[in-house]
């Protein structure tokens, strides 16, 4: 069942989203060569506890996982893209790190993810991350009241095709609000003008993720971490978005200071 939220409920979700954006920005600043993934996980645990929030991942135990997850942030490196189980691993120069965080504050959930390069970036990795970010913004742009869910999916798929990347349809975006996963499912490719009508009060996580060389995935022995089947690099971008009378409202934007990180990575790649 799809639950439409009131303006007050959306505002409460925005409070959660703001915290998530801030915490992801902090983790991005901490991520550097030599930093252990568990250091990032423990930082996230401390901040979630200090805020009085609840992790949506700690007790997460879906049919595909070997759960419960028992961590608060998904940390996926290089060919890992979704549900990366935090473990002892020191980040290396050039690693592509994707971070996915969902928490609840006062009973209202938000969910967001983004990818970054640790240290020296490769141009092809920046392009892959860019594709997910461009796809996300294209999807947000068409998330207008009166539109259709297929408009969002088609916008993501069109960007992926433009960049030349295949699309996996097993995992995609989703509704959320009182819990992390609600209806509807939001595929990362589809046909515009089809599907559920977008109405004010609908809150969804839009999350394009891509692998450079394949649309097939494999699971690690940990039962959680999802990787590209061919070992190619992957990237993941996600925001929680509310459909309002005025148009789409992004609830999980990261602080402006985080923009400088992406600019710095691009300058390093081009030698500027």
TrEMBL record:
Limits of the Peptidase M24 domain: 11-245
Keywords, sorted A to Z: Aminopeptidase, Hydrolase, Metal-binding, Protease
Amino acids binding substrate: 83, 181
Annotated a divalent metal cation 1 binding sites: 100, 111, 238
Source species, domain of life: Bacteria
E.C. code: 3.4.11.18
Record text on subunit structure and interactions: Monomer.
Name by which UniProt lists this protein: Methionine aminopeptidase
Species the sequence originates in: Streptomyces roseochromogenus subsp. oscitans DS 12.976
Organism lineage string: Bacteria, Bacillati, Actinomycetota, Actinomycetes, Kitasatosporales
Designated gene of the protein: map
